[in-house]
Amino acid sequence: MKHIMFYMTLNYPNNERFFEILEALSNEGVTYLELGIPVENPFMDGEIIQQSHDTVLKNGLKQAELIEVLKQIKEKFNFKIILMTYYAGVEKYDLLSHENLYDGLLCVDKSLTKKDLNKPIQLYPPKMDGLKMKEKLQNNETFAYVISGEGKTGSFDDVPTDYVDTIKNIRKFSDIPAFVGFGIKTKEDAETVFNNDADGVIIGTALMKEYIEGGIPGIKDYLKTFK
């Protein structure tokens, strides 16, 4: 079975609108939700996601509110919840103490292992050597996050093809599902990646751009293109 996971920054643009977005995603049958936990310097992300982090932080997101939001998501929806953040976010919001509220945690600037939490998710950039990949796979649950090519989120005009070799190499060491992110925008992009042996795709900047330009109706129309 193939999966499409959509990204949204937690509480963006505010709490009320954020839950309206989640409702739209749920109504269209989305099963995987990647939640960006905002930090002051999301350096691996492009302008749209960086600005969303700034917006949420300016609204004054506190740890207690973040934990309450995660609890509400668990109660209201059936998403598999994947947290994506930086180590500053892990520490600031004490995320390792609340594993019951999510299904996986990706920390992009520090490789967390099973000594840190039960379900770490690792990043697999292009041209990773075999020994490093094998080590990461031993500390990876839920799925392997394969980066399509070098660059920041939202910086690609077309989907790179570096991920094809990365998936092939992952298959040598593990049967864990491989999800590809960075640069995927359309149904055609997703189909191409699936045809190259990916188990899932991750769409972030494109979804957020649809919301910025068209609000909830824009998101609904966009999601329908993936039917």
TrEMBL record:
Its EC number is 4.2.1.20. Pathway: Amino-acid biosynthesis; L-tryptophan biosynthesis; L-tryptophan from chorismate: step 5/5. GO terms for cellular component: cytosol. Pfam families: Trp_syntA. This is tryptophan synthase. It is an enzyme of class 4 (lyase). Tetramer of two alpha and two beta chains. Keywords: Amino-acid biosynthesis, Aromatic amino acid biosynthesis, Lyase, Tryptophan biosynthesis. One of its GO terms (molecular function) is tryptophan synthase activity. Belongs to the TrpA family. Gene3D superfamilies: Aldolase class I. It catalyses: (1S,2R)-1-C-(indol-3-yl)glycerol 3-phosphate + L-serine = D-glyceraldehyde 3-phosphate + L-tryptophan + H2O. Transmembrane segments: none annotated.
